[in-house]
Design a protein that fits this description.
ten-stranded mixed sheet, 311 residues, alpha/beta, 11 helices
């Protein structure tokens, strides 16, 4: 029997993250909502191009194909469209064979208040205001940044990468560093507290539920040594020794782990990202969200002291 939605790993995705809506959005900006409605209805059967989050969402949904009995994951569409203008989005979802059946069409209103109702562990959108508002309401969210979409359909593995501070963990350590921009002060604080786990950050729940998927895969491997894992999780953090110990302490206290963990000590993260090739990378600092060629899907988590909006 399939898991009830309250027991599933649910990701909410805005149509602006799943598809490339730049053409129709420009019509909305230039001519207003009525012309936008007419345009979408006139192009209802024209399939939308894949957006930045598409490769990630497609592979995430494939988890259910490997665990048909449990069907442990779900994606819910959240859209500012009306149901009528949203038909083009739903037709595009069907065209690409994405198993997305639940949707919330808000007719111009922000969708984030409904994230808890759908048990969403993540909300992906290209609308910065919606993402910041969701985080302010303690809902996990990320802003999808523009990048070149690449989706190798022969590659079935799902690779997800996370920064640590301000993403998986809270921003306590980041606040210590930002106080004086003193790396020695930061290391001294983290060494003093190495035995104290960090409080959860905005995407801690997502990370922990992905770890549950890892355990399903480990069981599958024990049953079948030829089973090939479909999920790889990496932590890519600017930390290095001695502040690395508190990362380990925190994850151990939660009973989770990453497949690969990189303590880069301020090294350019793109050097590792180009090798790991994640289908999505979450970081709280825009300066870290870059790759050679701009071909890695990047998600900004505008949380904590590093993202305080100043007048």
């Amino acid at each position: 029997m399939a898991y009830p939605i309250e027991h599933k790993l649910v990701i909410g995705v805005a149509s602006s993250a799943l598809f490339d809506l730049s053409e129709s959005h420009q019509i909305y900006l230039d001519s207003g909502p009525e012309e936008y409605r007419k345009y979408q209805e006139a192009h209802i059967d024209k399939i939308l191009p894949r957006g930045v989050a598409f490769p990630f969402i497609r592979r995430f949904l494939n988890i259910n194909k490997h665990y048909v009995r449990q069907s442990p994951v779900e994606v819910v569409l959240f859209s500012r469209n009306s149901p009528e203008t949203g038909l083009r989005v739903m037709h595009s979802i069907a065209h690409y064979g994405l198993d997305i059946s639940r949707a919330a069409f808000m007719t111009g209103k922000p969708p984030y208040p409904y994230l808890p109702a759908f048990n969403a562990s993540l909300f992906l959108s290209a609308n910065e205001e919606d993402v910041r508002s969701a985080l302010a309401c303690n809902s996990p969210a990320g802003l999808v940044l523009p990048s070149r979409t690449e989706d190798d359909e022969s590659d079935e593995e799902l690779r997800v990468a996370f920064d640590f501070d301000g993403v998986i963990a809270d921003d306590e350590a980041e606040a210590v560093f930002k106080r004086n921009n003193d790396l020695n002060e930061f290391h001294a604080h983290e060494t003093l507290h190495m035995g104290t786990p960090h409080r959860p950050g905005p995407l801690a729940g997502l990370f922990q539920k992905l770890a549950t998927m890892q355990r399903l895969e480990e069981k599958a491997q024990r049953r079948d040594p030829d089973y090939k894992k479909i999920l790889r999780i990496a932590i890519i953090t600017a930390r290095n020794a001695p502040s690395h110990e508190r990362v380990v302490t925190t994850l151990k206290s939660w009973g989770v782990a990453a497949d690969e963990t990189f303590f880069l000590g301020g090294m350019d993260k793109s050097r590792v990202l180009e090798v790991f090739k994640p289908h999505i990378f979450f970081d709280d600092q825009l300066s870290h969200l870059k790759s050679v060629g701009g071909n890695i899907p990047m998600v900004h988590v505008p949380f904590g002291v590093a993202n305080v909006l100043r007048p």
